[in-house]
Amino acid sequence: MQKIGVFVCWCGSNIAATVDVKAVAEALKSEAGVVFSTDYQYMCSENGQAMIRQAIREHGLTGIVVCSCSPRMHEATFRKTAVSAGLNPYMVEIANIREQCSWIHKDMAEGTEKAIVLARAAVAKLHKNAPLTAGTSPVTKRALVIGGGIAGIQTALDVADAGFEVDIVEKAPTIGGRMAQLDKTFPTLDCSACILTPKMVEAAQHEKINIISYAELDSLSGFVGNFTATIRKKARYIDEDKCTGCGVCTEKCPSRKGLDDFNMKLNKRGAVYIPFAQAIPNVAVIDPEQCLKLRTGKCGLCQKVCSAKAVNFEQKDELIERQYGAIVVATGFKPIDASAFNEYAYNDSPDVVTSLEFERIMNAAGPTKGQLVRPSDREHPHEIVFIQCVGSRCTEDAEKGKPYCSKICCMYTAKHAMLVREKYPDVNVHVFYIDARTPGKNFDEFYRRAVEQYGVDYIKGMVGKVSVEGKKLHVQGSDLLNGEQVHINADMVVLATAIEPDPTARALGTMLTASMDTNDFFTEAHPKLRPVESPTAGVFLSGVAQGPKDIPETVAQAGAAAAKVIGLLCKNELTCNACVAHANEAACNGCSQCERVCPYGAISYEEREIRSPEFRGVRRIAVVNEAVCQGCGACTVTCPSAAMDLKGFTNSQIMSEVDAICR
Amino acid sequence: MIVNRLQELLQDDENLQFVGWEKGETPFDRTPKTFTAETLGNLCYDSFCGSNLSKYLLSQKTDKKTVVLLKPCDSYSFNQLCTERRLNRDAYHVIGVGCKGKIDGEKIRKTGIKGILSVREEGETLKIETLYGTTEIPRKDVLLDKCLACKGKEHKCADEVLGESEDTCVGDKYETVAKLEAMTPDERFAFWREELSKCIRCNACRNACPACSCIKCVFDNPNSGVQNKAAADDFEENLFHIIRAYHVAGRCTDCGECSRVCPQGIPLHLLNRKIIRDVNEFYGDYQAGDAIGQRHPLTDFTFEDSEPNAERKGGGK
Predict the structure, then answer these.
(1) In a domain, A328, yes or no
(2) DSSP letter string, B175-234
(3) Dihedral, CA of residue B218, residue B223, residue B224 and residue B226, to nearest 10
(4) For A257-282, what is the mean pLDDT?
(5) Looking at beta carbons, which residues of chain B come within 8 Å of A640?
(6) What is the pLDDT of residue A397?
(7) A343 and A443 co-located in one domain
């Protein structure tokens, strides 16, 4: 029989205002096994903990129930308290009478009754608790960064600077990501490539950083500190070690039908290409969809002209298996597909472009060499209309757009407007906006400069329709401040399209068992207090993969994620979860269902000799690897014969809790 | 014809054992039985061999190579047991036997025919000899309920097939499930309370069910903490069947043995069929036991699975 102490916390008025804490402490005194029961204003305080320690010693308690806030808050606190008084940490049960009781009840009598029931359930469970000991597992001192944009590069640099090996896996042929496509950056208007490429070079030259480009994560197993990843390095048909990046092949390639992804498909490129001049690695890649040799077997011109003999049409996808201690998700974003927004004539006119397309048009390395011309006829535009919130903040038409604010569009539109007016003062620029959202250091000043200094015509209101009329684009919108309809005959229309997570994110989230929100952004472990950690241990978040953000914020978050990774990789070993599953061999059927639901690959099978009343002989039995098991309990609920059980949350403990609640 | 073929097999390996049916005490009884070369003459296969032999195999030793007779519907259960590694496929030579629907003795009795001595099949007609003379009834009127939800004539695991089969499915097998779904929760609760109150806990359903194959059932295991739950009161007793349905969810092949063997006539298969229908609706059509090595939807995932998320209405209708 256990000797149980019950400690009821007031949490100031958080609990005590809705739950009669004294009545709870009093009621629990009559529970079987309870030898001590009391209440106190703040159990988590030094005084409260001292009270618990004293009671454990004075009454020889074998276990304690703390009726307080969620175990997510203070379970660790009270376990340490119990340990310091000589108890096993797993002889502590928390009855959550705050989040699950006082905060959701208004009536004192109801709240008190429920608190008593919850406390009774905890006592009933505690009767069946047994001391548990956690094992330890080693930490692989290497990090995997998925995504080689500014977020991934920054995290990798910071982790590598601390002395740990980092692999960056980038699905494109080069690192750099979206930032490499940008022309200028707000609010300072410095050139994006000028500040990004030094970082790219630094990453490439860093002895601790290994860039695996044109590659994706194929599969993942393991757990925090001990992940095993298989990375698929896609065939680029060019030997990376031999290619010098001279570019002769790209000039000679006779195929000219491929669309240049880096330039947002605004121009054509050869089947063999280097995405941009400062690409890292500066190695060509062959697009198998366009390559004549790969499609028809004829051509092979690039192979002939390559003096380095780097072209290899026989190259196959390569699988690389590697161990990691931590994983950083930096998968970034893409602009949403604007073709769903044909009210803005995006499908009807090449002169209606998205902001990222506009970014390439304005860029000196872009398809127009930085000349602002209409894509349709290469003529200089005189009237440009910018439309904000295209696909952002859509509440009514959620099928089409996104409910969230993409956060960066107000600022980049102000940037675009300013750049146009700066370079081409003859061009009239109109911006239709819902609100101009400019919180950020020097952001509002930047926006005001666009309006006041550069004379950009900001019109509060949305555009209803853009129609193609000859060479012109007829823009009909509303000016809400003046209460009138606006008609503008524009030469170009730029859509500030919403951003969405990269399409690879969801599959990756499933692979990592990292949770995502309804928009496929990775969720953080706590929205305020753990913003760069995924709820899945060992998985960290960097950049837009977690939510829309601009470059300064991304870099800050990338550094924060790196700090968390370094904190993990510094450890030599991690304490395992003591609440792990185990199989009762007498009842195990060996049916494999538990193995199939185990997300961690912790279950394997062994032939064992069984001597039970039901069976004598050799039988296939499930065996749990305790270092790998994370205690999720999926196996225990799948097992039809209840052979699988979870230490600390056994079937019979849970049944006791249910019985206590239904008593 | 079947026995002749089995005799042939014996000529290659005289140590073979055979799992089939034997005539029982009444004109309708056919009992699962293991035969040796000596007793093979007693093996019988006719329209009363409704029972599913797959589960019976679990209780038979496999030190000798076993030849087993399986109807098309039984083959699903056999596959499922192989998938769960309860049976070793290599230990069996499966003879797929033809089936044109099996006769329900109870249904013959319920037509009011008394003093039955024997039943003979002549095409689509049953000739019934009674103490009071001979009567005839159409065969299709007295098929087992499970045959009316026939899964088709295809053998899913036969090494060889003897005899023709027919698909005897009539109408929509989910019709009754749909009716139950259309009830209000209170009506449905009352329906099941009434049906399940007939249960005498004879465990026939559990013993016949090929999915209920645990070496140690939770209801018999003192360590499970639920051993005596089902005996605690009449409501807990009802829950025995609900829990059983969940334990076989995703693995039940809808073989209908539970309802066929229930001496109280409880339509237990409806619980399983409701779950099958839900699984099909949420994750796409799935037939347990269709092939060996399948992963059933409840222990599987794909990257396309909808997340169980209230906002997404994951898996919702």
Answers:
(1) yes
(2) HHHHHHHHS-HHHHHHHHHHHHTT-----HHHHH-SS---SS-GGG-GGGS-TTHHHHSH
(3) 90
(4) 95
(5) 214, 218, 247-248
(6) 58
(7) yes
> Is the model's pLDDT at A553 over the cut of 60?
yes
Residue A607 belongs to domain with CATH number:
3.30.70.3270
Whether A274 contacts A286, CB under 8 Å: no
By residue range, what is the domain housing residue A409? 334-500
Q: Which of A544, A569, A594 is the last residue of a domain?
A: A569
Sequence-distant (6+) residues with CB within 8 A of A227 are A140, A144, A220, A221, A323, A324, A325, A326, A327, A538
Give the three-class secondary structure for A440.
coil
Q: Which percentage of chain A shows pLDDT scores above 70?
A: 100
B268 is written with which tokens?
A: 């237990």
Residue A243 belongs to some domain of the structure: no
Indicate which of A522, A614, A656, A658 best probes the interface with B, i.e. most B CBs within 10 Å of its own CB. Answer: A614
Rounded CA separation A454/A422 (Å)? 7
Closest C-alpha among B301, B283, B210 to residue B247:
B210
The angle formed by the CA atoms of residues B62, B68 and B71, to the nearest 5 degrees, is 145
- In a mutational test of the B interface, the residue from A395, A589, A608, A610 whose CB has the highest number of chain B CBs within 10 Å is A589
Interhelix angle A192-205/A150-161, rounded to 10 degrees, is 40
- Tell me which residue in B217, B295, B312 faces A596 most closely, judged by beta carbons: B295
In a domain, A132, yes or no: no
Helix axis angle, B175-182 to B269-283, nearest 10°: 90
Q: Is the dihedral of CA A452, A370, A148, A534 positive or negative?
A: positive
Residues of A near B (CB-CB distance < 8 A)? Answer: 506-507, 510, 516, 518, 584, 586-593, 596-597, 612, 614-615, 619-620, 638, 640-643, 651-652, 655-656
Which residue, A543, A569, A595, sits at the end of a domain? A569
**Do A69 and A96 belong together in one domain?**
yes
pLDDT tens track for A49-72: 999 999 999 999 999 999 999 998
CA contacts within 13 A on the Cβ side of A252:
14
User: Are A396 and A528 found together in one domain?
Assistant: no
Domain co-membership, A386 together with A492: yes
Q: Give burial (CB, 10 Å; 0-12/13-18/19+) of A355.
A: buried
pLDDT score recorded for residue B306: 59
Indicate if A374 and A407 belong to the same structural domain: yes
Average pLDDT over residues B87-99: 95
Residue A341 scores a pLDDT above 80 = yes
Contacts 24+ apart (CB under 8 A), A318-322: A318/A232, A318/A233, A318/A235, A319/A218, A319/A230, A319/A231, A319/A232, A319/A233, A320/A212, A320/A215, A320/A230, A320/A231, A320/A233, A321/A228, A321/A229, A321/A230, A321/A231, A322/A142, A322/A144, A322/A167, A322/A228, A322/A229, A322/A231
Q: Is pLDDT above 60 for B312? A: no
Which residues in chain A touch residue B295, judged by CB atoms under 8 angstroms apart? 596
Whether the predicted pLDDT of B309 surpasses 60: no
Is residue A662 included in any domain, yes or no?
Answer: no
CATH at residue A193: 3.50.50.60
pLDDT confidence of B234, banded at 50, 70, 90?
confident
Do A226 and A300 have their domain in common? no
- CA dist B19 and B247 (Å) reads 27
Which of B246, B242, B271 has its CA nearest to residue B256? B271
* Alpha-carbon torsion, ordered A264, A268, A270, A276, to 10 deg: -40
Q: Rounded to the nearest 5 degrees, what angle is found at the Cα of B12, between the Cα atoms of B85 and B60?
A: 35
A541 and A420 in a common domain: no
Q: Looking at the structure, do residues A378 and A457 belong to the same domain, yes or no?
A: yes
| Residue pair A23/A54 in contact by the 8 Å Cβ criterion | no
Q: Provide the number of structural domains found in chain A.
A: 5
